[in-house]
Design brief:
By secondary structure, the protein is of the alpha+beta class. It has two domains: 172 residues, no CATH class; 121 residues, no CATH class. Helices cover 37% and strands 26% of the residues. A twelve-stranded antiparallel beta sheet has the order 4-5-6-7-3-2-1-8-9-10-12-11. Strand 11 and strand 12 form a beta hairpin. The chain is globular. The chain starts with 7 loop residues before the first helix and ends with a helix.
Length: 330
């Protein structure tokens, strides 16, 4: 299964910069999960905005502030008006972002119309659809986004080509909607649920050698919380449901190896920091369920982020210099 990474650009912008309200907001969005959904990603953006990490991110990064302003101008979306988010997808046709919004449809339309000729409206399945063509820059200009309100405070945003399948998936009775997607306990800042069995290639084939220890994984649930007095520590927990207890125990034994290979690759230039990351992982199994928990305190988060940022900068090829005779040309 292939994720639509270009569609993730505006979605991730909202995830990182806006936020979800309380758990009730996500529960409201889950009512609009279409049939055919194989994965869900939800973020409590209101809570995220209250963390010191978010405040520091804005304080220390002038480029990020400028990017937010450009994004809001480009898509006529005020990120602070998005209270909760749930991204759902499945197969090749189901894609959509559900937003709990604090702005009425009438007010949003007024904002969208500021885009001039890039905005248009139409009808589909008896609903009013608002279309917006992005300017060149963040996404390809031939793309067209569709937005419609499913409830007074719930809006659906997706690419035009995915709108019809998403709305069709809402026609199925709620009881028949995805049952293989688990929900977390409590109210994590962010969580994701996957129907792994239907997503992986070759699912349903017994002992598929290409999948290794993951071949018997049926469902997976991942949740993220911030910890510590300053809210800058991270606890990332993953829970998987396997075919049976033996499969769960096998996956539990191999997870540290998979994680170790990833850490060795990412932290090759600082093995001591990599070892701290390895020590922060705890795995186990109980019955047909396997768990993995990564606990990082604020200091380790800052170290790891600083190291990875430096590695990224060192690998970015700088742009070619502008010839002197062209520097002042208009």
């Amino acid at each position: 299964m292939r994720f639509p990474f270009r569609f993730l650009v505006p979605v991730l912008a909202v995830i990182l910069l806006a936020g979800t309200a309380a758990a009730a907001g996500v529960e409201e969005l889950l009512k609009f999960l279409p049939s055919g959904s194989e994965y869900v990603i939800a973020v409590d953006l209101d809570r995220f905005r209250t963390t010191s990490g978010y405040a520091k991110m804005l304080q220390d990064n002038a480029e990020l502030k400028e990017w937010i302003a450009q994004f809001e101008e480009q898509y006529q979306v005020r990120l602070k008006e998005c209270r909760s988010l749930l991204w759902a997808g499945g197969g090749k046709r189901v894609r959509g972002t559900l937003l709990e919004v604090a702005v009425s449809e009438q007010a949003l339309v007024k904002s969208l119309k500021a885009a001039g000729g890039r905005y248009s409206a139409g009808k589909l399945e008896g609903r009013t659809i608002h279309y917006l063509v992005p300017e060149n820059g963040l996404l390809k200009p031939e793309m067209r986004f569709a937005l419609c309100y499913l409830a007074p405070t719930v809006a659906l945003v997706t690419e035009d080509r995915y709108l019809g399948p998403f709305l069709a998936g809402l026609k199925a009775p709620g009881a028949s909607r995805p049952v293989q997607l688990e929900r977390p306990e409590g109210t994590p800042v962010a969580w994701a649920s996957f129907d792994v069995r239907s997503m992986l290639p070759g699912h349903g084939k017994k002992n598929n050698p290409l999948l290794g220890a993951f071949g018997n994984l049926r469902r997976a649930l991942v949740d993220l919380n911030f910890t510590g007095d300053d809210g800058r520590g991270i606890v990332l927990k993953a829970t998987g449901t396997c075919r049976d207890a033996n499969s769960a125990a096998l996956l539990g034994m191999t997870l540290p190896s998979y994680f170790g290979m990833g850490v060795a690759f990412l932290f090759a230039q600082d093995a001591q920091l990599g070892q701290q990351m390895l020590n922060a992982l705890h795995t186990g199994s109980d019955g047909n369920r396997v768990t993995a928990e990564l606990v990082l305190d604020a200091a380790l988060v800052e170290q790891a982020c600083g190291y990875l940022a430096g590695e990224i900068r060192s690998r970015i090829i700088p742009p070619d210099p502008v010839p002197p005779d062209l520097q002042n040309r208009r």
